[in-house]
Amino acid sequence: MEFQQIQLEIRDSVGILTLNAPDKLNALTPLMVTEISQAVEDIASRCRAMIITGAGRAFCSGASLDPSNPLSPLDNEPATRDLGFVLEHQLNPLMLKLKNLDIPWISAVRGAAAGFGASLALAADMVVASETAYFAQIFSRIGLVPDGGATHLLSRTLGRVRTMELMLTGNRLSAERALEWGLINRVTEDSQLEAQAFEIASSLANGPSQALGMTRKAIWAATDNSWEASLQNERELQKIAGQTQDFAEGIAAFTEKRAAVFTGK
Prior knowledge:
Elements: E1 6-11, E2 14-19, H1 30-46, E3 49-54, H2 84-99, E4 105-109, E5 112-114, H3 116-122, E6 126-130, E7 134-136, H4 150-158, H5 160-169, E8 172-174, H6 175-180, E9 186-188, H7 193-205, H8 209-224, H9 227-241, H10 245-256
Helix pairs in contact: 1-2, 4-5, 8-9
C-alpha cells in the first residue's frame, strides 16, 4: 500500500504508523486522515500491536489551516459554515476505529501534540513522550471548542478543574506535568523515544493478543458504564478469553514454571 503523507512499517508483529509531513509539523489534511484510517485497518489485520508517531520535531500540530490545503474548507459565509462536518465524516470515525481496535496501541510523542493532535496522542492505550513533548488544547485561541473526544477523555482522566484550565486557557502541558497528572505513561530522552515505544509495543505484541484486545475494550467501556454493567461485560469477555489457546498456554506455562509463549490465538 502506497502512502503520500504517512509511513507504514511492520516490524516483528508491531505496526509503526508515522505521520510524515514534518515541514508542516504533521498537520492533518484530508489525505492524511484518509491514509491514517487505511493504515490502521491494515495494521490491525496483520499485527498484534501498533505505534503512532510523527516524523520530525512534532507529533501533530492539529488540523491543517493552510488555505491551499485545509482539513476543513472555510466557507466565506459564516451562516453556512459547518466545521462539524469534517468531525462527523472523517475525524470521529477515525477515533471510533482506534477505540474499537482489537490490538493495543501506543503513541510516541515528540514536540507538539496540539489540537486534534493532542486528542489523537492521548487516546492511545499507552502514551510515551520525549522530554520535548507538550500537549496543547489550542482550540480556544482560534475561537473553537475541543474535539477528537478531548472533553470526554481529559475530564475523566484529569477531572473537571484541570480540564477546564487546559481547555479555557489553551496553555501548554509539558510532558513532565502530564506524567505527574497521570495523563501519560513514560517520559524519555528525546533520542530514546522510538526505542522505548517499540520495547513496550513489542512486549504487548508477544502477549495474549485476544485477551489484551478484550481488556482494552473493557477499560474503554468501563469509562462510561455503571459498576454493574462493567461486571457483566467482564463476565462475557472472560468466557471468550477462557476459550483461547493463549489461556491454555498461560496455564501450562504457570504449572511448568516457564515463560509463556503466546501466539495470539
